[in-house]
Design a protein that fits this description.
heterodimer; A: alpha+beta; Immunoglobulin-like; 3 domains; 9-stranded mixed beta sheet; 5-stranded antiparallel beta sheet; 19% helix; B: 60% helix; AP_complex_bsu_1_2_4 (chain B)
């Protein structure tokens, strides 16, 4: 089980320290900093050997440090998010999946409470963070991690709540007893809205790897159904899709009755209050019909430089425009300058990261295919090739998998809620090799 | 109002004055602010213990938020001030009977943390009451408190019958209470010398029923506990697996992977192949879905997948593509994926695999590129029909002249030559063009082996060897051994070409080096050549045992042991937990009438009800544990070093225990 948690800033200093089972000395953080520095300084190409040590400049970055590091006495399970490292040293056998899930959950909850997770926001709301950590775990066992249940015990630090706490304190009222021991731990009792409404956002991200010649190496969509529920009482909902058979694999919020899904492909659930992720799913896409964009990069190296051409061909998206297209084209590390023109959008070359960023705000079908072409020069006679173009875009009101909601029915409550569904397709890890 | 101001270093006198201030504070607002300051100081590591007596006065304020901070303080300092802690007891006793269940739970929870003898004594009665409290929130908190007490004083927990009380909680109407009781029992059983958790069929079914209703973390505890259920009859395992299968759809990846563990375990007790196949089919999609998570989760998943597919090859058989690497995956994810791609490769998909590997071999990440090149070579050894395409790919890579790529390629080409003698020697010329740039011992010895092995086809073999010999005395032993053997081979195959080199090398090896292996080998060659040249030829040029990638597989028993530890550090490092965790209770596949062939029954323990028993079962384990130690996995110091050694034990130069094999 989890002993302790340290939150460390980018300089290796402790911001939060929490122990649930006996105290682990703060020195463990130094050990961690040393171990990860040691790792980052390994010369490239030596990861699979253990006999080489060196003092050269760091080659690996913090992102490359393995999530489990070994030290003399402890195993250092660590998660790096936005400059903060969340470190759990463990001494005994432990389920690392549980530790990582729990750390992610803490990060999510803190983000939910504070708006963002950073050294500044944690310091600003230190007592809240501390209370959360205390409430989320007892003696190394995760306790209450549902945001809805937590909010009943610990008020988010907003101005209104500050006032509320003061008033409550004045009246000598202790917070309500948490309802998380009921059979639906995710929903609090006595929720009331004058206007009952529930919204669903279906967001699909396309992960694809495409070769330079347009061959699709792999391609799938990861979808999530996020809901915002503002319904009174204990509504029991039943959501059906027009075409649920499209889904290859799915996972659900604990509120979903899995048996019902297995037998009738119906999402039957009592929703938590507020925002929550109802389900996520995976759909294998047939590459040629599903790709909303086809991107053809061409890079021709010449001596000390080269030429490049990239064209973007929009494909069928049910007539919906493709928006916010951003192509990040990494150039070789030896690049000294880039000169290019594009017929649509605008481009920028960042000499520090050696990346060309080409942005197209909106693309309709039947327009002229956007093209970016140019030359680059390099300090190397033979600049290295084989870099990967990263593509970003989004398409509103479109779901690439074809998933559509059929109906939403409500039981147990008398009112008629307002219902809304929005779809959106985005690029996930959409990579084009050159 | 932000909390940052509480971080100002507060002087204890000032804080004390504020705490004891006589000013009217009917809403305890001032006290709350001071407490916040104290807690903030405490977490900064400033010593706040002098305030103990003053804090005790605050204990009677019945505002939950203040109470929580006071308790936090007590947990922190009670151990260093046991006398002071005593004074808190009356307050605890009062709180533990508070009408508000939240306060009762909080009090019992805090008392469990304060492991001071006197407090522990006073904890027993309240704990007993809380375990039977009318409110489930208190009961579930009390269950965890038993573990705390157990860590402090296990004898006490047993003599006061707390274990029995936990067992009774398994029949609690509330699923969360059941889950916590199970978690407590599991942990106690793992730490205990004389308590062994065993679930019988009816308790296992009861737990499986509670699964649907308890929290996600509760589900991981319950699933974990099901590992202590031993199916007795045909159909038991199938039924339980069927009941827990919906957990594979859970959003929490810890629940999913623990469920995979239980299902893999239960499959050992299933007879019908078609049942096993159908459960295997259920495992694939959720394992793929784990890969859509953050990189840390992916890493743990990948390391475990590697184990699962070795035991049940039908899992993920058709999902190879999902393991293709993204260029921005962290290096540890890429390397772990590459292992799996190699395992899933077969003659049907080898073209796809090969074109991916070629792509990876041109990336910028050196470690990744090396492993990709190496995988191409291993692919050739694994799949004969693809060998030619692999060789072509390797030659293309050698033409890039990227130094580390060339060296890596030469190492694997040696293995290909060994696997398929007399088929691909035409490429030797190309290899020889790259001799000058070799600077890694492994690549050098590989190349030297090739030169020696084909001394009769490489016209200038003597010149090439002579070049290498130039630095003989400075080389690492591995290269020296290769040079010695290669020179002797040259001499036997082409005595004229080798006659000048051999005496020189034998002299160096026997007289000028300190390494006993090298010296011994030198002497053996010397005597062989001088006494019986015919048998020297028969021995040195004998056929070598053929190689395969089979030796990459983990030992079957070791694999079975690791599979009992899916989703643990052991499964991430592929290392038996008994080798790196103190006082670890080893796990085995227990014999039962339903156990299928595969793992041998290790010992017989027939009891099937869950019970706290004092029999010496653990001592029975100990000698088995010693046997198991011999199956330790690869060196854990480097997580990447695991199971990707070159093809052992038949690599030239590597000793495999038989004297003659030294003379390759």
């Amino acid at each position: 089980m989890i002993n302790s948690l340290f939150v460390i800033n980018r300089h290796g200093k402790i911001i939060v320290e929490k122990h649930w089972r006996g105290i682990i000395s703060r020195q463990i953080v130094d050990v961690f900093n040393d171990e990860s520095a040691k790792f980052m300084k390994l010369p490239p190409g030596t990861l699979e050997r253990s006999d080489i040590s060196s003092n050269q400049e760091a080659f690996f970055t913090k992102e490359d440090v393995p999530p489990v590091l070994e030290s003399n006495k402890y195993w250092l399970l660590n998660v790096l998010r936005d400059d903060l490292t969340w470190l759990c040293p463990v001494e005994k056998e432990v389920d690392p999946m549980l530790v990582f899930e729990f750390i992610h959950r803490i990060i999510d909850v803190v983000t939910d409470y504070l708006g963002d997770v950073s050294e500044a926001s944690i310091r600003e709301n230190f007592v809240t963070v501390y209370q959360l950590l205390e409430e989320m775990m007892d003696y190394g066992y995760p306790l209450t991690t549902e945001p809805n249940a937590l909010k009943e015990i610990i008020m988010p630090p907003t101005i209104i709540n500050k006032v509320m706490t003061t008033v409550n304190a004045a009246a000598g009222v202790t917070p309500k007893f948490p309802q998380n021991m009921s059979n639906i731990p995710w929903r609090k009792a006595g929720v009331k809205y004058t206007q009952n409404e529930i919204y669903f956002d279906i967001v699909e991200e396309i992960d694809a790897t495409v070769e330079a010649n347009g061959n699709v190496v792999s391609c799938e969509a990861h979808g999530t159904v996020v809901a915002n529920s503002r319904l009174s009482g204990m509504p029991d909902l039943s959501l059906s899709f027009i075409n649920p058979r499209l889904i290859d694999d799915e996972s659900f919020h604990p509120c979903v009755r899995i048996r019902k899904w297995e037998s009738d492909r119906l999402l039957s659930f009592v929703p938590p209050d507020g925002h929550f992720k109802l389900m996520s799913y995976r759909v294998a896409l047939s590459p040629y019909q599903a790709m909303p964009l086809q991107i053809k990069p061409q890079i021709l190296p010449t001596k000390n430089g080269g030429k490049f051409d990239i064209t973007v061909h929009p494909r069928s998206t049910d007539g919906k425009p493709i928006e916010a297209i951003v192509l990040s084209i990494p150039m070789s590390k030896s690049t000294t300058s880039v000169n290019a023109t594009c017929n649509v959008g605008n481009y920028m070359y960042d000499p520090i990261t050696k990346t060309v960023k080409w942005e197209i705000s909106k693309l309709q079908q039947r327009e002229r295919a956007p093209m970016l072409s140019g030359t680059f020069s390099s300090s190397d006679a033979q600049p290295d090739m084989g870099l990967t173009v990263d593509v970003d875009f989004k398409i509103s009101m479109y779901s690439v998998s074809g998933i559509k909601v059929d109906s939403l029915r409500l039981f147990h409550e008398g009112y008629k809620p307002y219902k809304g569904v929005r779809s959106m397709t985005k690029a996930g890890k959409f990579h084009v090799r050159t | 109002m932000s909390d940052a101001k509480y971080f100002q270093r507060g002087k204890t006198q000032e804080l004390r004055a504020e705490l004891n201030s006589d000013k009217r504070d009917p809403k305890h607002l001032r006290k709350k602010t001071v407490m916040k300051k104290i807690v903030a100081n405490m977490t900064m590591g400033n010593d706040m213990s002098p305030l103990f007596p003053d804090i005790l006065n605050v204990m009677n304020v019945s505002i939950l938020e203040i109470k929580k901070m006071v308790y936090l303080y007590l947990i922190n300092y009670a151990r260093s001030k046991p006398d002071m802690a005593m004074m808190a007891i009356t307050m605890f006793i009062k709180d533990v009977e508070d009408p508000n269940p939240l306060i009762r739970a909080l009090a019992i929870r805090t008392m469990g943390y304060i492991q001071v003898e006197k407090i522990v004594d006073c904890l027993i009665e309240p704990l007993r009451r809380c375990l039977k409290d009318r409110d489930p929130y208190v009961r579930k908190t009390a269950a965890i408190c038993v573990v705390k007490l157990y860590m402090y004083n296990n004898v006490l927990v047993e003599s006061e019958h707390f274990i029995d009380m936990l067992r009774d909680l398994l029949s609690d109407p509330n699923p969360t209470v059941i889950a916590n009781a199970v978690a407590a029992l599991t942990e106690i059983s793992e730490r205990s010398e004389n308590i062994q958790l065993k679930l019988n069929h009816s308790i296992a079914s009861k737990l499986a029923a509670a699964l649907n209703e308890c929290s996600e973390w509760g589900q991981t505890y319950v699933l974990e506990a099901l590992m202590y259920y031993l199916p007795q009859e045909q159909g038991d395992a199938e039924m339980l697996a069927e009941r827990i299968a919906p957990r594979l759809q859970h959003a929490n990846s810890a629940v999913v992977l623990t469920c995979v563990k239980v299902m893999m375990y239960l499959m050992n007790y299933m007879k019908n192949e078609s049942d096993i196949t159908s459960f295997c089919r259920k495992l694939s999609p959720p394992l793929v879905t784990l890969l859509a998570n953050e990189p840390e989760v992916q890493y743990v998943a990948l390391r475990n997948i590697l184990l699962v597919i070795q035991r049940r090859p039908e899992v993920l058989r058709n999902d190879m593509k999902v393991f293709f690497c993204k260029y921005d995956d962290p290096i540890y994810v890429k390397l772990a994926k590459l292992e799996i791609i190699f395992r899933l490769a077969n003659s049907g998909n080898v073209d796809q695999v090969l074109s991916e590997l070629k792509e990876y071999a041109t990336e910028v990440d050196v470690d990744f590129v090396r492993k990709a090149v190496r995988s191409i070579g291993r692919l050739a050894v694994k799949i004969e029909s693809a060998a030619e395409r692999c060789i072509t790919a390797l030659l293309d890579l050698i033409h890039t002249k990227v130094n580390y790529v060339v060296q890596e390629a030469i190492v694997v080409i040696r293995d290909i030559f060994r696997k398929y003698p007399n088929q691909y020697e035409s490429i030797i010329g190309t290899l020889c063009e790259n001799l000058d740039n070799l600077d890694e011992p492994e690549a050098k010895s590989a190349m030297i082996w090739i030169v020696g092995q084909y001394a009769d086809r490489i016209e200038n073999a003597d010149e090439l060897l002579d070049d290498f010999l130039y630095t003989f005395l400075d080389e690492p032993v591995e290269v020296q051994l290769a040079l010695l053997t290669a020179t002797v081979k040259l001499f036997i195959k082409r005595p004229l070409a080798g006659q000048e080199l051999v005496p020189k090398v034998l002299k160096w090896a026997t007289e000028e080096t300190a390494n006993p292996d090298l010296r011994d080998r030198g002497y053996i060659y010397w005597r062989l050549l001088s006494t019986d040249p015919t048998s020297a030829k028969a021995i040195v040029l004998s056929d070598k045992p053929s190689i395969s990638t089979e030796s990459d597989n983990l030992d079957v028993n070791f694999l079975d042991e690791l599979l009992l530890h899916i989703s643990s550090l052991a499964s991430v490092y592929h290392k038996s937990p008994t080798t790196f965790i103190h006082h670890y209770k080893p796990r085995f596949l227990m014999p039962s009438p339903a156990l299928q062939q595969g793992s041998q029954p290790q010992l017989h323990l027939a009891t099937t009800s869950i019970q706290a028993q004092s029999e010496q079962s653990v001592n029975d384990h100990s000698n088995v544990a010693v046997n198991r130690l011999s199956f330790t996995g690869p060196n854990p110091a480097n997580p990447y070093a695991t199971d990707f050694q070159s093809i052992q034990p038949t690599t030239p130069g590597a000793s495999n225990g038989v004297g003659v094999d030294l003379l390759l």
